[in-house]
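User: Structure with heme C, tokens only please.
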Amino acid sequence: MPFLKRTRLVIALVVVITAGSGTARWSMAQDDGKRKEFMRLKLETAKALLEGLALENYELLEKNAIALKKLSMGAEWEVLTIPSLDYVGFTSDFQRAADELRDKAKAKNIDGSTLAYTKLTQSCVKCHQSMRKRVP
Ligand code: HEC
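Assistant:
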């Protein structure tokens, strides 16, 4: 992919992430500081992925893809107060994208990594969107 085209894609992704973080705030998080902190870790890790893509740092990409997958397997990820089949589906989409990103980074495939990152970001947005519908 030509450098300029890739740069434009990365910029577009920054916009997606930035736009998402401003709105991903809904009431449930208020009384649970620890979980809130955990949730914010996702954002920090996702930001590191963007850095990895922009700088073509495959080590950073692989490390953070693995970290995100691990986060998604933690107890804090489970939101038992929102019983929803969707949630399980969104979690597996998320994990699949994290695995794909790890593998593409391992193979030093920048286009594949970028695509997997996009899928991952999409899963953040979709899950949050569905949670927001449930929690006023
Ligand atoms: C399977 C569902 C799901 C996916 C996928 C998901 N999240 Fe979340 N996220 C949640 C839920 C649920 C909350 C709210 C938790 C609460 O209210 O305690 C949340 C909250 C957040 C918050 C707000 C924390 C705060 O300050 O209150 C951030 C930031 C966040 N997620 C980032 C991300 C990022 C970045 C991704 C993708 C890399 C992502 N999330 C993917 C379910 C998900």
